[in-house]
Write a structure and sequence with these properties.
This protein is an all-alpha fold. It has helices spanning 12-33, 39-57, 63-90, 103-120, 122-127, 130-133, 143-171, 191-207, 209-212, 218-226, 229-240, 244-258, 262-271, 280-284, 288-291, 305-308, 314-334. It is built from 17 helices and no strands. The chain is globular and about 70 Å long.
Length: 337
């Protein structure tokens, strides 16, 4: 069966247009009805749609195309299903409290979601495109393929299981406000992010095999390697935009200022790796310089009450009271009292 040639032979334009139309459709519902429940569902299922369409358009599907497409579908379907289930239980998404009634700020989120979906899908999109499938392909089962399947499986288990573990922990009334330090969260503060990142790099590792083994040449060679933008973008997003930066220091600040299990949270962060799973016994005794560099707990994530808290401590208040008292005594002495 001949491949479908749609706008360009890398499927970049057609997948972008489909993504824009798909997201705008759900945006119109969400904005009109002030309805939060479809936002993350629209993002996750968009990955499924792009993988199905590009695989179908490719004409001749080999095992590698099927595997990476199914991996992307499984990830997108699980993620969207879990997030839909969670938002149905919670009722609304606090992220949109300051945007829900404002057209352009709310639309801005959806535009960013369009870019996220389209970019992260690049390894699958390009592998399924006519400019890559026209070349001979190495049989599925190379070292890269096997390593990619193993990594993807580890990532899928880490993300899906940790999502369930945290949901169950937070669903119990006796755990309200407590630090989730059960299951995978014993070894990593964000095992779901870790799983998501290695899944996308695993998909890229498998998808780029035809080029890595010398079967694909020319511009298609460059296009396949350029698709690494997908997993890199996801990693930067989770580490510096919407993931760790919104949870680590802000979360610690909120706990400290409200007195919500601050001491237990502080001890938890001292013994638990921020992203890469490590035994807590090892991480607790690791030199700070290694934590802040190799193991990714960068200073932008670290909360220092003296620098970042708006709440004055008892000692600060006492010091200020003492200084104020000394000031009054000095004025009284000058006035001859």
């Amino acid at each position: 069966m001949a491949p479908v040639h749609a706008l360009d032979d890398y499927y970049l334009a057609i997948t972008l247009l489909i993504t824009i139309a798909y997201q705008l459709f759900f945006f119109s519902i969400a904005f009109s009805l002030k309805f939060d429940k479809l936002t993350d569902f629209a993002g996750g299922t968009n990955f499924v749609v792009l993988a199905i369409i590009t695989l179908a358009f490719s004409g001749t599907q080999n095992a590698r195309q099927i595997v990476v497409s199914l991996f992307m579908m499984a990830w997108g379907a699980r993620l969207s299903g879990f997030l839909l289930f969670r938002i149905i239980k919670t009722g609304k998404d606090d992220r949109f409290d300051d945007k829900r009634d404002k057209f352009f700020p709310f639309l801005g989120f959806w535009v960013f979601q369009m870019f996220w979906v389209w970019t992260v899908s690049l390894p699958v999109t390009i592998l399924n495109s006519p400019n890559v499938t026209k070349f001979d392909q190495p049989a599925f089962g190379t070292g890269r393929d096997i390593a990619g399947v193993i990594l993807w499986s580890i990532g899928f288990i880490a993300e899906s299981v940790s999502d369930v573990q945290k949901y169950i922990f937070r669903s119990k009334p006796e755990n309200k406000g407590k630090v989730c330090d059960v299951g995978f969260f014993t070894w990593s503060r964000h095992p779901n992010y870790f799983g998501e990142i290695i899944m996308q790099f695993a998909i890229f590792m498998i998808a780029v095999s035809p080029t890595a083994y010398g079967y694909v040449t020319g511009q298609a060679f460059n296009a396949q390697y350029a698709a690494i933008l997908g997993p890199f973008f996801l990693t930067l997003l989770l580490m510096f935009v919407s993931g760790l930066t919104l949870q680590e220091r802000p979360g610690a600040k909120k706990r400290y200022e409200s007195g919500n299990h601050w001491e237990s949270f502080k001890k938890y962060t001292e013994r638990t790796s921020i992203l890469i799973p490590l035994p807590p016994q090892l991480y607790a005794h690791m030199p700070t310089i290694l934590k802040r560099t190799i193991f990714l707990e960068f200073p932008i994530y670290v909360f220092d009450p003296a620098k970042h808290s708006d709440k004055k401590t008892h000692d600060d208040n006492a010091a200020e009271s003492g200084e104020a008292g000394q000031g009054r005594e000095s004025r009284e002495q000058l006035n001859g009292n």
